Amino acid sequence: MDWNIYLSGEIHTDWRDQIEQGARGANLPVSFSSAVTDHAASDAAGDLLGNEDNNFWRDHKSSKVNGIRTKSMIERCDVAVVRFGDKYKQWNAAFDAGYCAALGKPYITLHDEDIIHALKEVDSAAMAWARTPEQVVEILTYVTTKK
Q: Which domains does the chain have, with CATH numbers?
């Protein structure tokens, strides 16, 4: 079985690359998908529908256009990895985790210890909490290759 892994959350570090490289190095039967990680492109997705003078409506339209991709990919994934970074609040990641939980999709949270309290509900519905991309690769190795 090839596993489809959805990578959600923080876009300012290379954690996705680390997981993908680790999975390739371990020769795991996985493929990866993700939201658009180019911040400017994601913010401008709604501009395809026309310019807005009001930032609320620009963000609203962009959120809906981005949601087409996010919703479809989460629904098709076997497992999601939801990364919460320390620099910005990733409300979208929390929403993705909640969507996974609502769908019954297993997800792994990836974050540092200093935000455990803020994410207690998100972590309680997760199947695992990892602190490093390497731990995520170890979990994926276990679930995709152990008999």
A: 3-145 (3.40.50.450)
